[in-house]
């Protein structure tokens, strides 16, 4: 991993294109997955695999350590070195500060999960019996927060569609911190693949349809804590229309089509981001 102390103020400094950024992130993902497997094998040999399985499966600590010792210390990641790109604040033509690099790492790894947890906690506070809110206010806030929790993953996917088209800011965390990528060495493809742009357009259309279809069932006025079964919705928590027929190991309910489509793209629960292998989803009976 090469240290990146500064950017040359060259007139021909070019943005990294989408394919290079995607290859970089894929190579980093492959490295952390291999590291996870090796660590899992070591723990298995020492008889600690069952005890630590949930942490190793989640993979977040390994990602945090990896990006701290690369991006956080001003070095290229393995993927960035492989594709010849560097993180940069392009508007100012300089390498971003340590604080911005760390903030981008934290937002990319924890941002979506923390936001969903904050919304869930806020919704639980809204439904506390000793709050000062009227019944009408509680109902309105529940509907708003429920929809917001459902739309957050869709908005993040929408942002990824914009990235496929324009190639700027791979994630929300990088957009917030102003970090992008520039090509510093190696041969760069002159044009962006039309397939990526087409993928971006279809992704955006899919997200707009999901947002348009998002609606709260009329018979739900409050969303209480998970233990309060009397107010639990048995509607799919993604499309919010079809009856829930499957559940993740973390206890969230979805219809088969929505959950299977989601897990094909990312093996994580759409709500809490817990790792969910497609083979471990549970078919529900007698709901």
Distance between the termini: 53 Å
The proportion of residues forming helix, as a percent range, comes to 40-55%
- How large is the share of residues in beta strands? 5-15%
Order of helices and strands: EHHHHEHHHEHEEHE
| Overall geometric form | globular
Structural class: mainly alpha
Count, helices: 9
Cα Rg: 21 Å
Kindly give the count of domains: 2
Unreliable segments of 5+ consecutive residues: 53-57, 216-233
Average pLDDT: 76
| Strand line-up in the sheet with most strands | 1-3-2
Largest sheet: 3 strands, antiparallel
Number of strand segments: 6
Can you walk through the features of this model?
By secondary structure, this protein is mainly α. The protein folds into two domains: 4-215, no CATH class; 246-283, no CATH class. 53% of the residues lie in helices and 6% in strands. The protein has helices at 18-45, 49-58, 60-69, 78-83, 98-126, 135-166, 172-177, 194-213, 256-265; strands at 14-15, 85-88, 180-183, 246-247, 253-254, 282-283. The chain has a three-stranded antiparallel β-sheet with strand order 1-3-2. Strand 4 and strand 5 (253-254) form a beta hairpin. Helix 1 (18-45) runs antiparallel to helix 2, helix 3 (60-69) runs antiparallel to helix 5 and helix 6 (135-166) runs antiparallel to helix 8 (194-213). The longest helix has 32 residues, at 135-166. The protein is globular and about 60 Å long. Mean pLDDT is 76; it is low at 53-57 and 216-233.
Can you tag this structure with a few keywords?
287 residues; 2 domains; 53% helix; globular; peroxisome; 9 helices; Znf_RING_CS; 6 strands; 3-stranded antiparallel beta sheet; mainly alpha; ubiquitin protein ligase activity
